[in-house]
Amino acid sequence: MLLAAFLGLTSSVPSAAGVTSGHGVTGTVLAQGVSEKRLKLRARGRSDVVVRTIVIDPGGSTGWHYHDGHMLVVVQSGTLTRTLEDCSVEVAPAGSAFVEPSGEDHRHVGRNLGTEPVVLYATYVLPKGSPLSVGVEAPSCAGE
Q1: pLDDT tens profile 2-20
Q2: Would the pTM of this model clear 0.85, i.e. be above it?
Q3: Element spanning 11, H or E
């Protein structure tokens, strides 16, 4: 009776006939992360999309900057510590993902306070012809 139930169940599984198999294609996962927040990317008009690896050595810093477009980041290794415009601090360990919003009011600095390099995989979605980042002064709350 159990065998009859099993055979009945398997006969109702849809067939894969008609599915084509791919060939001659390879793929490599460069980085994978989990976002704890909702991710939103938006672009208006023509955009440059740039994918880049960023390495921040122990003790290193990006300097205060902002982006004219959004940036999707996956932390491959190390721990990135970001200080934001309001001087709040966000820590992103390996395996995390986040979006850096665009505009001057979203200036920030990224630091590696750890002992191993921070490796980031970043995808920029920028207005056509924009620089990857724009350097700025630190906000007054940073005391720099």
Answers
A1: 444 444 444 455 556 678 8
A2: no
A3: helix 2-11
